[in-house]
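Researcher: Please translate sequence to structure tokens.
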Amino acid sequence: MKITFIADFYTDAIRGGGEIVNDILIDGLERRGCSVTKLTSAQTSVKDIQFLKDSVFIVANFVMLKPEVLHSLKDLKYIIFEHDHKYLKTRDPSPFRDYLAPQDQIINRDFYKNAIAVFCQSKVHAKVVRQNLHINNVVNLGCSLWSDDELNTLQKYSNSQKTNGCAVLLSSNKVKGQAQAEAFCQSKSINYQLIGSPNYEEFIKQLSSHSSIAFFSQVLESFCRLVVEARMVNCKLFTNGNNGCVSEPWFRDYTGTQLIDFIRGRREDIIDTVLQTLQGNKVAQETASITVILNSYRRPYNLRRQIAALRSQTVQPKEIWLWVNDHEDNRGWDYSNLGIDRIFQNNHNWKFYGRFAGALLSDTEYVAIFDDDTVPGDRWFENCLDTMKISEGILGSAGVTLNGDRYVQHTRCGWPSQNEEVSRVDLVGHAWFFKRDWLQYLWREKPTTWDNGEDIQFSYLAQKYAGIQTYCPPHPRADKSLHGSIMGNELGIDDKATSTNSAISHQQFFSERDLCVQTAIRGGWQTVNGIKTS
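Model: Translation complete:
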């Protein structure tokens, strides 16, 4: 395979982390029989691109690439090997709340969107790219790359005797946080030494002689090789939340030689993933056939938080739609800058059933519907798809099991009580996940009331007409990334909740639900506890 690699610099000019990783990637591709042509961004012309158009392109750092050259790549086959955040004017999302930059700070959006894949190096790196660009071709490689020489050096010093206290990186680059690390050590009365050397082995030797390292990056590090190297030589870590590598599950599990062996294996997996993507043998986009339906009624201010959570899913939805029920609280609200694919802007409040009617227009295998107070964990869709493999049914984040023929007599699971295993329930709410084809059953019988009980009606009729049961996926107490709602108490219990709305009496709301339950049971609904009604 012919590959053209584009970067601002290579290691013959600068030995930065990005340049080292690029060289290792190129070496790995060449070992697999690829012919790689290296172009330097500043010296690349449109004629160069046209001359090499029959190759596939890997674009790494491209700050110095001319706009017309960038544009000339749009119809060609390319991937982006992202080292930082070149979709931002500043290349740094750190100053923005939740790393979510204002739209006027976004650049190069189409270039990222049109790539076969945008490869990121850590979970948090991929999450921030997704939520800022509203794209679903972002792939988390889950690691950086080290050469055999580097790994052998790390192996050599992995069990060195700890003769010094805490290390602090000596760096003139303010973003590396030398001053902050020193201040931390001083505030904690920790004995520390500054370390630094342009020679890799000498630096690792210095690092390995220390029992710990204090490193306080002043920007969001996509990965941070130094932090991982410290773990490889068994240093304790004092740091802040700006290191992408700590978001990877393996970071907590491995240290020393075990981590070195893991990193060596991951390098080969990453190179294979990149090559297979370029060959078209691997689907790079971590997407599933899911249409999301969000709802705007009295809490439109929650939408941005919800969308950020959806863009952060380990399995990305195909599209995000918004159903707007008319209310004075959302009139005049600007939805245009949310990055939503479709908007149903209604001049009427269709209440609970409207969004399910809108879902009929979807063309995906699955539909996910969220209440306006529901923010999912990053692995919610992953959790739902895994649950579907063993307990196919209507899924939700708040499961309800009835204990009598009145709704108030029930037990809840999911985020409210945190169940460790899949649980069969009578109905679910807050967040639904189901096959799009099952929507037909919701409309087989006219609801007892259009004002309430769509959750009861859906589970009842899907069971009655198709034998489809309802389940609550695992919501483990120790891992909220799997939860369908991670802010239910914070966002859902207010004066805008229908169940507590002063415009609708508490008694009326639950009386309507009692009637829905009793009508369903009389109609043949087989509840988990075999509830009967007179």
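Researcher: Any highlights?
Model: The chain has a mean pLDDT of 92.
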